[in-house]
Specification:
Oligomer: single chain
Order of helices and strands: HHEEEHEHEHEHHHEHEH
Distance between the termini: 44 Å
Structural class: alpha/beta
Number of domains: 1
Strand order of the largest sheet: 1-2-4-3-5-6-7-8
Mean pLDDT: 94
CATH superfamily: Alpha/Beta hydrolase fold, catalytic domain
CATH class: Alpha Beta
CATH architecture: 3-Layer(aba) Sandwich
Number of strands: 8
Low-confidence stretches: 300-307
Radius of gyration: 18 Å
């Protein structure tokens, strides 16, 4: 672990940004530019495909696939981001596990506000099931808003009567549209990326007037997590969204869910994106890969022996 690495990344993320509200187009372009330099493993292969009613990016490793699928939801406040912008995360997960990943290009707000994203992610999951994939060999994963979708897609799938996936992995998830977590205030200024003003501005585009006090928007506060699969929540101690994960973990424990709350000190929002330049990012992705391999690997071995 390197204080110098963390300090360099913190300073980079604190560079001055344009003041005042930016257009959606400017926000999207700025995020893609921020994520473009992130390191993607050289063995990563990608292919454009369709899953459900949406485009998706199939991410594989050159080392050959194992029996298991990660259904991945990218971050970006439900307003920006893309499967390409998170390739540093999906590429490393695929390289470390040997599984394939489908990264869903779900519809974005403000053009398509809540619940469009959840409709698209559930549709993608249905497509995997309809294609014959065993839910015990599927995991949901995502970062930031996509980490929130990993949880809310599971809620919506359960409500629709679908079998649940084998595991959930959420990196710095956004899980509370009510913004009532203490870290929203206590980490203000410590967080080099997010502020209450910025997340409320972006969040309002996704809400489009919807009541935030409902499980599909604020699962950390309101969701019944009964029957949820094993869940790994990874978050940085410097994040204003820290308490989103802390409170969801508490709700999961109370519901009898196997949950791991994995908090890393002195790192920013979705620090896993910095794999290859931040030791903590590589170590966190190693832990996530182990978690996924234990859940999906066991399912794959059982499936193989049954066959």
């Amino acid at each position: 672990m390197s204080k110098e690495q963390r300090a360099r990344i913190d300073a980079m993320l604190r560079q001055p940004r344009p003041e005042g509200p930016r257009t959606v187009e400017a926000i999207r372009a700025g995020f893609e530019a921020l994520m473009a330099p992130m390191i993607v493993p050289a063995t990563t292969r990608t292919e454009r495909t369709t899953l459900g009613n949406r485009p998706a990016l199939l991410v594989e490793s050159g080392d050959g696939p194992r029996d298991g699928t990660i259904l991945y939801f990218h971050g970006g406040g439900w307003v920006y981001g893309s499967p390409e912008s998170v390739l540093s995360v999906t590429g490393h997960l695929v390289a470390k596990t040997g599984f394939v990943a489908y990264s869903v290009d779900y519809r974005l707000a403000p053009e398509h506000p809540f619940p469009a994203a959840i409709e698209d992610t559930v549709s993608a999951y249905r497509a995997l099931l309809d294609g014959g994939q065993d839910p015990s060999a599927i995991a949901f994963a995502g970062d930031s808003a996509g980490g929130g979708l990993a949880v809310t897609t599971c809620l919506a799938a359960r409500d629709a009567g679908l079998p649940l996936p084998a595991a959930i992995v959420a990196f710095s998830p956004g899980l509370d549209a009510t913004r009532t977590g203490e870290s929203m205030s206590t980490k203000e200024g410590v967080d080099p990326i997010l502020t209450r003003t910025s997340v409320e501005h972006i969040g309002a585009m996704y809400l489009a007037g919807a009541d935030p006090y409902q499980p599909l928007l604020s699962p950390a506060v309101l969701a019944d997590l009964t029957g949820f699969p094993p869940t790994l929540l990874q978050v940085g101690a410097n994040e204003i969204l820290l308490d989103d994960s802390v409170r969801l973990a508490a709700r999961a424990r109370a519901a009898g869910v196997d949950v791991i709350l994995d908090v890393t000190a002195d790192v920013p929002h979705v620090f896993q994106s910095f794999a290859g330049v931040l030791d903590e990012a590589d170590e966190a992705l190693d832990r996530a890969a182990l978690f996924l391999s234990q859940r999906l690997g066991a399912a794959g071995a059982a499936h193989a022996s049954a066959g």
